[in-house]
Amino acid sequence: MIKVGIVGYGYWGPNVARNFYQAPDAKVTAICDADQKSLCRAQLNFPDVELVQSYHQLVQRADIDVVAIVTPVSSHFDIAKLALENGKHVFIEKPFTASGAQAEQLIELADRKHLKIMVDHTFLFTGAVNKIKELLDNKVLGDLYYFDSVRVNLGLFQKDVNVVWDLAPHDISIMDYLIGLPPTTVTATGVSHFNSNEDVAYVTLYFPDNVIAHLHVNWLSPVKVRTTLIGGQNRMLVWNDLDHDEKIKVYDKGAYHDGMMMAYRSGDMWAPKVPEGEALKKEVEYFLSCISNDITPINDGHAGLRVVRVLEAIKESLKWRGAPVRL
Amino acid sequence: MIKVGIVGYGYWGPNVARNFYQAPDAKVTAICDADQKSLCRAQLNFPDVELVQSYHQLVQRADIDVVAIVTPVSSHFDIAKLALENGKHVFIEKPFTASGAQAEQLIELADRKHLKIMVDHTFLFTGAVNKIKELLDNKVLGDLYYFDSVRVNLGLFQKDVNVVWDLAPHDISIMDYLIGLPPTTVTATGVSHFNSNEDVAYVTLYFPDNVIAHLHVNWLSPVKVRTTLIGGQNRMLVWNDLDHDEKIKVYDKGAYHDGMMMAYRSGDMWAPKVPEGEALKKEVEYFLSCISNDITPINDGHAGLRVVRVLEAIKESLKWRGAPVRL
Amino acid sequence: MIKVGIVGYGYWGPNVARNFYQAPDAKVTAICDADQKSLCRAQLNFPDVELVQSYHQLVQRADIDVVAIVTPVSSHFDIAKLALENGKHVFIEKPFTASGAQAEQLIELADRKHLKIMVDHTFLFTGAVNKIKELLDNKVLGDLYYFDSVRVNLGLFQKDVNVVWDLAPHDISIMDYLIGLPPTTVTATGVSHFNSNEDVAYVTLYFPDNVIAHLHVNWLSPVKVRTTLIGGQNRMLVWNDLDHDEKIKVYDKGAYHDGMMMAYRSGDMWAPKVPEGEALKKEVEYFLSCISNDITPINDGHAGLRVVRVLEAIKESLKWRGAPVRL
Amino acid sequence: MIKVGIVGYGYWGPNVARNFYQAPDAKVTAICDADQKSLCRAQLNFPDVELVQSYHQLVQRADIDVVAIVTPVSSHFDIAKLALENGKHVFIEKPFTASGAQAEQLIELADRKHLKIMVDHTFLFTGAVNKIKELLDNKVLGDLYYFDSVRVNLGLFQKDVNVVWDLAPHDISIMDYLIGLPPTTVTATGVSHFNSNEDVAYVTLYFPDNVIAHLHVNWLSPVKVRTTLIGGQNRMLVWNDLDHDEKIKVYDKGAYHDGMMMAYRSGDMWAPKVPEGEALKKEVEYFLSCISNDITPINDGHAGLRVVRVLEAIKESLKWRGAPVRL
């Protein structure tokens, strides 16, 4: 039985706590939050779990093997460092850290102490991303042409981060997993209408082999959109995460050189059944099995670092209104 | 009765010819195309119009007041120059010219000879753009936050231009008309998968007052999308040009500062009736009345030049993978 | 504090129990279910509520004022009768009873003992139905022309009732509330593909003043549809209950006599904001206030009886392949 | 070369004329319409075709082999009878005749004179209906459960027929073709809001083997709907004729008996490519080849008669508010 302590019981913390609580191989022993109201909510939901107000106490407890850190990114490094120093495995919210340097330090520390880090890139455990990965691995789409993601809605503004740090880690981690190669150059544009944090932003990522990716993230859209287009040489797909019944549509469409001319192919469309089930549940169970069987998670510290490096490059490019930043 | 000669009877030429032909105040006297098959099609449709194979003949005819140029952009300058030199008004396909320098020369020539130029920015004459202009002018949206347009589909690849020169003139001319201010900086990214012409591209335009615009143009999309989001301080709208019945949806939604916090407003949605009718018909009739009444068209040579300048800046930025180009 | 006992903890029972549990003016004192597994689930969710296996015990308890009956319709009459005889108010699942005669007996009993009956016509407490009622009351649609509802999906088959008794009570109770008049004639058709219970059925209801209503209920549809069209003299509306953001669309469209000819009007569309919130919560709180303030609920026994009478007429008409049955 | 005369040049006539005109094996020699304005329009479109005002002249001409009758249904019988008596093949608008007795007389006459009748059930020649027929013939859906069609929109009211005679012949002819069996019983309900002709109607058709069909036709709907659900034992499909890109969706879903219980299957969805092309063109060419090769068309007089018999039964049932009428 792996014993888990939760740090942070705000918006997402209750979900992390619930999934560790219900996992057959884990036991949640303590929950920590600086806010008394959050602790009261934890009390109602998990009457048999101890509540503490300071994470310093929590990370030192002997009855804890894993610390799950579900706090704002600015606090990630300090808490994770302390947890690792105390010999605890770390499950940590995305984005991993506020800088690449912090991420490198945590990875090094975990390696030295033979501890696991899992960064909560939840989307990697959804039925949709798993199905797309399968289609790409089986060469159903053929060579990749582009990856285009739109993730927009009205609010919620975050005080301390811009719309990129809030929403783009989802897409960057998905891209990282699906494309399997790091981008070489990043370009980003955006503006802020209320304070210094961008609320609308556009990001282009250049990859090797003429693959291009683009993200549109926006806190000021009247409609919620969660749509990704993936173009390949043989087929193309549309993933609409808001479509309950037909999340992924694979189009038997393509463009190719036919001697001198471009030719087009347009055939059937096919919407494969996408397995349902809570992604976070699968992720938490996977993390527990990684610990038990000493396996490196796909979403380990290195994966987290790759995402943070792209976020840093975006920040730099945004400052210069789209100037390309090499990675 | 204004007498019109048409140069170019390929894809779009038949529509231009038909609309001048049916306009009460105009008479089409000659149609020119270098391709014999195109002339045969013209013959069938307009048995009473003279057909010529060289535009040099056409522009010198005494029975022509207006030359409508519906040819590839590379030929625009030569034909338009000759037409103006021969004292003819010019109706010309978008984009106006292959360079800003060419556009400036044509504008100067037309001014000197007191002739009209109209660049065929057809979208400015659609019910949808007129309705949006009305909403903006009446401050229904309030101060503008952003303009975001997606114009993607499968093909048709053009041999001599990239996807930006093919599709973006629509959006740039619409933006120019709706925003009413020139952009200050342009950033563009994209890749080519088949030859040296980009088939996927992303463009950001920075405007004064923190207004940002973005275009996504793509010849490799499995689905056709023609959607524009416009965010304003008071309301936001979605223009889906493929939705026959509810093209424009105005959302009574907004974000604003409420002291320290961001607050949101979410109310009714409203889809105003958008007038139908062929935009090109309205445009052609407007051009004829501009000539008769000596009025400068909204889509004159200067409007055409503004679009070409943005296209040139995009070309430059694309070369450097998104480096910002000041206008 | 009104004390509540719940009879039936299967599919819907947990929702009824939770809403009475959380209502400020109520206290759930006992839950009853014949199935031990269901009781275990109740135990987990409400550790402080007493569990009993027989409703005979429950309805006699002194610490119960209201019995909420959430069992299959075949058992409604016996349980409700016993509850009323023991002086308890009754909250009861739809359809009210298995026959009009049973409903009449319960209504008479409740009246005699000055007790309240509320039939759980949950939809009457949704934001959508309330908004439509408001539009009709304010004559926004004008005189009613028709009411057309489609409620189809794949399964779930019920053993003891057909698709009409399963799904149509929703629509019949909504119609009863919105139209405010009882139908005069009922016609119903349908077939069964697996046993003697219809899985596809169509129902027409004739009302006074040329108003017609129609229901399509189906357990064998590959897609889920929950759409109601309501046509009026001045405007028409579409209520798509599966559309999260634009549930109700009001069309400024109409048809009218213009002397000899029919004329049409086609204007804006308008999607009013529909209040969110759990309907069952509002219903339960309304029931508690009806008891406290001695008010007759809109969904009282008489409303339940009107629905049952229509269901009986449908059953009769189905037998004769659509023969009209007068009410 | 088969010589064709067209009787009726109103709403649909120009399409019939154009398709016979463009067919390689036919020549349109004369067009007839009682209305002078219609004849002027015909003159403009077909300057080389002779125009006549009375069909009596037209049907007697020696330079005519086929008479295409595109007039209101009330005139069908007289014109078709005269055409057949004069030895002409007949292409005739749907519905075939105003009564079954008329249809029988025309069939008998054509048979006796070895002439062809084709009733213009255009939908049988669409890519969508052909694809569905192919799916049914290949047992992709398995045994049929139901056929449900909705064909609603705002107007256009017809003076002399109700909404059933206007819209339902499409669905009845499609059903007749796809199901391949005549219905045994018909039930219909509806009301009229403006005159004695129903503007909203619902029709149920009972077929052998527990197959049921239902039509909803409506001239008073704020939205246009053209959707057919077809449920089968193995798979189910949705045909949305207004969806340009994904007209037909085949769902790998089903319900079946698993011993005592109902079980459900839910798998992929698949949208086969539906061939495009004008249905009327295919139909006209098919008719010409039926004449040349002495083949009986699938949409011959008998097919027309089957549709008229259903229409008559609907009329009868409507009168009695849904009373079942046996065929």
Summarize the structure in words.
Four copies of one chain form a homotetramer. Chain A is of the alpha/beta class and 327 residues long. Chain A folds into two domains: 2-115, Rossmann fold; 124-277 and 309-326, Dihydrodipicolinate Reductase, domain 2 (2-Layer Sandwich). In chain A, 34% of the residues lie in helices and 31% in strands. In chain A, the strands form two sheets. Chain A has a nine-stranded mixed beta sheet with strand order 14-13-12-11-7-10-9-8-15. A six-stranded parallel beta sheet of chain A has the order 3-2-1-4-5-6, sandwiched between helices. In chain A, helix 1 packs across helix 8, helix 4 runs parallel beside helix 5 (100-112) and helix 7 crosses helix 9. Chain A binds chain D through residues 245-246, 252, 266-273, and chain D through 245-246, 252, 266-273. Strand 14 (261-271) of chain A pairs antiparallel with strand 14 (261-271) of chain D.
Provide key terms for this protein.
homotetramer, 327 residues, alpha/beta, Dihydrodipicolinate Reductase, domain 2, 2 domains, nine-stranded mixed β-sheet, 9 helices, globular
Under the CATH scheme, which architecture of the largest domain in chain A would be assigned? Answer: 2-Layer Sandwich
Structure classification of chain A: alpha/beta
Number of strands of chain A: 15
Q: Provide the CATH topology of the largest domain in chain A.
A: Dihydrodipicolinate Reductase, domain 2
Number of folding domains of chain A? 2
What is Rg of chain A? 21 Å
Quick one: which chains have the greatest interface?
A: A-B, 52 and 52 residues
The end-to-end span of chain A amounts to 42 Å
* The CATH fourth-level homologous superfamily of the largest domain in chain A: Dihydrodipicolinate Reductase, domain 2
